[in-house]
Specification:
Shape: globular
Strand content: 15-25%
Largest sheet: 10 strands, mixed
Number of strands: 10
Helix content: 25-40%
Radius of gyration: 24 Å
Number of domains: 1
Structural class: alpha/beta
Strand order of the largest sheet: 4-3-5-6-2-1-7-8-10-9
Oligomer: single chain
Distance between the termini: 78 Å
C-alpha cells in the first residue's frame, strides 16, 4: 500500500469512527420518541428523523393514522360531547384504578384534570432507546405496539392476560407515549419514581427505599400549553397489596379527585378489594364507571346522586360463572329511564350494549378516608393462612384459589 492509500484508509477509518461515536452519543427527546412510536414525525432536527425514511415506519404511520382517526370518530369525539353536557365541575386530580396504560380514555373523559394517577399490574418498563436498538428490534417494537393497542382501540378496553404477555418486557411506557402524542400532548420530562410506606414520592434511584408501588412520572403540556402530570404505578390494589405499599396514602395526599373505573374485572365486587373501593367512595367527587366497578349496593343514596346511561345487560360471557350480575342495577336503569349513549364503554362494547353510571357526591357528604393500619411482624405471624387476594392478573390466570 502506497503512502497516499494508507493516508486515505486512515482518514476513512477515523471518519467512520467519528460518525459512529456521534451516533452513539445522540439522544432523542422523550417527546420525539413518543411521536415516532405513535407514527407521527419527530422534530426536524431529531436524530430519529432519519429513521422515518424507512418504509416500515411509514407503513406504521399510515396504520396509526387510520386507527386513531377511526377511534376519534367513533369514540373520543362522542365522549368529549358527552363530557361537555354532563361533567360541569371537574376536579384537578383524576384517579383511574385498574387502568393499565389507558391514558386515552382518562384524557377523553377528564381533559381538564392537571394530575392523572393511573395504576395496573404491568411494569412501566425502561425508557425506549430507539437510537441504540437494531432496526429489526425497532420494527418488532412498532408491530408490538399495534398488537398491544388492538383491543383498546377496537373494544375500549385492554384484555388483561394479553396485556401481561405483551408488556412484561417492554412495559407500559411506550403505550403511554403513544396515547400522549396522539392526544396532542408535548412531553417535557419523564422520570422513574416510587412510593414509600408513608405515601411519599421518591426517586427510584434511591437504594434505601423499599417500595411495592413503582412507576413513572411524566410531565407534559396540553394543546393550550398547560403543564400537567401523569403518574403510572405498577402496584397490587388488593387489600394485602395496598396495606403496606403507601400507594393510597399518596393518592390521599393529592386531595379529592374524580375517578374513572372501566373494565375492572369486577374486582371491587370482592371483599379482597374493599380498601380501594372504600378509598374511591371517600375521595371521589365524581365516579364514572361501568358495572365492573363498584357495586350499586355500595353507593349510599344520602351521599351520592346517581345517573344511569346506556343499557345494563348481563355481564360479558367471560364472567358468566362469577356472581357479578346485579338485579338492583337492572331495576335502577329501568326505573330511572337511563339516557342513551352513542359510544362504547367497558366489556359490553357493541353498539347499544354499554352501560355507564355517573355518581356525583352530594355537597353535604364527608370526604375523610382512613388508611388501614400496616401489618406488623407479630400480626403476620399469628394470622391464619388464607388464599391469596385476587388481582386482575390472578383473575385472568385462574379464577380459583383467591379471595
Amino acid at each position: 500500500m502506497n503512502k497516499l492509500s494508507l493516508i486515505t484508509a486512515v482518514v476513512a477509518s477515523l471518519l467512520s469512527f467519528a460518525i459512529g461515536t456521534a451516533h452513539s452519543a445522540e439522544v432523542a427527546s422523550a417527546n420525539d420518541t413518543a411521536r415516532f412510536l405513535a407514527g407521527m414525525p419527530p422534530s426536524a432536527d431529531s436524530p430519529l428523523a432519519r429513521l422515518t425514511q424507512d418504509r416500515s415506519w411509514q407503513q406504521h404511520a399510515k396504520s396509526m393514522d387510520k386507527a386513531f382517526a377511526e377511534i376519534d370518530r367513533r369514540q373520543v369525539s362522542r365522549i368529549q360531547a358527552w363530557v361537555t353536557a354532563n361533567l360541569s365541575s371537574p376536579k384537578p386530580v383524576m384517579f383511574y384504578m385498574f387502568s393499565g396504560p389507558d391514558f386515552l380514555y382518562a384524557d377523553a373523559f377528564f381533559p381538564r384534570a392537571t394530575t392523572y394517577v393511573l395504576s395496573g399490574l404491568e411494569p412501566p418498563g425502561p425508557n425506549p432507546d430507539l437510537l441504540h436498538t437494531q432496526q429489526g428490534s425497532i420494527l418488532s417494537t412498532l408491530s408490538g405496539l399495534q398488537h398491544s393497542m388492538q383491543s383498546l382501540l377496537a373494544y375500549s378496553f385492554f384484555i388483561t392476560h394479553k396485556m401481561k404477555n405483551d408488556l412484561q418486557t417492554r412495559g407500559t411506557l411506550p403505550l403511554l407515549y403513544v396515547f400522549l402524542a396522539r392526544s396532542g400532548k408535548q412531553i417535557r420530562d419523564v422520570s422513574p419514581v416510587n412510593i414509600d410506606s408513608q405515601g411519599e414520592l421518591q426517586t427510584e434511584s434511591d437504594p434505601k427505599v423499599k417500595s411495592t408501588a413503582r412507576g413513572v412520572k411524566i410531565v407534559f403540556a396540553d394543546a393550550e400549553g398547560r403543564e400537567k402530570t401523569l403518574y403510572y404505578f405498577n402496584t397490587d390494589l388488593g387489600n394485602s397489596g395496598v396495606k403496606n405499599s403507601g400507594f393510597l396514602t399518596f393518592c390521599d395526599k393529592l386531595g379529592d379527585g374524580d375517578s374513572l373505573v372501566k373494565s375492572a374485572s369486577y374486582l371491587m365486587h370482592r371483599d379482597g378489594f374493599s380498601t380501594v373501593r372504600n378509598f374511591l367512595l371517600s375521595k371521589s367527587a365524581v365516579i364514572l364507571q361501568d358495572d365492573s366497578g363498584i357495586p350499586l349496593r355500595n353507593f349510599d343514596g344520602n351521599r351520592w346522586e346517581l345517573t344511569p346511561f346506556g343499557n345494563y345487560l348481563t355481564p360479558d360471557p367471560v364472567f358468566a360463572n362469577e356472581p357479578v350480575y346485579q338485579p338492583n342495577m337492572h331495576e335502577f336503569f329501568r326505573k330511572a329511564q337511563a339516557k342513551p349513549i352513542n359510544f362504547s364503554f367497558g366489556y359490553r362494547w357493541r353498539p347499544g350494549e354499554s352501560n355507564l353510571l355517573l355518581a356525583v357526591r352530594r355537597a353535604s357528604a364527608e370526604t375523610k378516608w382512613t388508611p388501614p393500619p400496616p401489618e406488623t411482624s407479630s400480626s403476620r405471624g399469628t394470622r391464619t393462612k388464607r388464599a391469596p387476594p385476587c388481582s386482575s392478573l390472578a383473575f385472568w390466570q385462574s379464577r380459583k384459589g383467591c379471595t
